[in-house]
Write a structure and sequence with these properties.
Length: 397
Amino acid sequence: MATAQRSKSRTDHPRSQRRSGIIGCSDEAIQLTQMISLCAATDASILIQGESGCGKEVVTRELHELSDRCDQNFVGINCAAIPAQLLESELFGHKKGAFSGAIADRVGRFQLADKGTLFLDEIGDMPLELQAKLLRVLEERVVVPLGASVGIEIDVRIIAATHQDLEGMVERGEFREDLYHRLNVIPIAIPPLRERRADIPEFCHHFAAQYSDKRNLSFTAETMRLLSRYDWPGNVREVANLIKRLSVLSPTDTVDLYELPDAFLPKKLRALRDEAESGLTINARHERSDENTAARCDDEDKVVDLGYPAQRAEEIITEPRAGVRSATEVERIVRLSESMDKIPEGGIEAKTLLHEIENNLIRVALDQSDGNVSQAAKLLSLGRTTLIQKLDKQRFG
């Protein structure tokens, strides 16, 4: 009856209309949100497993906020952060004089979470001898503080989390099998960020809005492509830390990874950026002798049709191909335009002429820099992003 009454009150509670705290549009994020909605109302124990930084505490708080206990305490404890000799007292409490240093009664986390939710983070790090005492509390719903002779009844919803393989630990005798089954009534697995890359842009924009303060931090399209390809070994926590760093240190409101010092970026992200940049090296990656080539960064990058087999700048100058203006011819066109004091009666196609000059200058700069876009942009005194945009729009030949 009490459960039915709680369920009724929850339906009318304003939090039932709240926006989900789970970020992401991927299938995995949607499935996770649906799973949370399905099991939030139950009092059954939940075991959340996932890599460090993937958002286990966020999921736990979402479960609490959507539960019938949302108006009661949410109490968490990290089992890996507290010495084994103190963890029992932290969980169950103690009476004055129970041990050396116990100068006053202490209420444990179980009592603090009464009628609410107790979050046991990193449960895999709990000592075996304490696991047996925890199991007894979960079975009897009674906690006995250290030094006490009388137990205290508790009504607590348990959510445990770990980044470890508890099933493997059970097989190795490192975790009690009976406690594992008691906790694992409803399992929730959070996939790492590298397995739901569609969510990465949303996390980046979310944290940019959260940490940017008065700045309107945004990202270039290529930067977001690189961030989406990075594996994020630290998962969501690493995204939050990086975006917070960039919100302070980025020289402009639009983040461009190619304009940032190496020290700002994780080593593997720097390597990914450098690899992508070398991927723009046309001659090295797309040299073909039997057909026209296309230069691409990777699968997602735009195609630049060169209109001729890749070759060195000096080859272009000495052996111009049909339909391709050499650097010498570009100079001739420029000189011709400078010497003009009158437009011919038939007129000229200025737009086409200027377009050809720009195309050839870009071609020569790319060949001179072995296709490295950043170096070519410097030769032309253009921004790297500007040059990429021109390459996207222009077709040579």
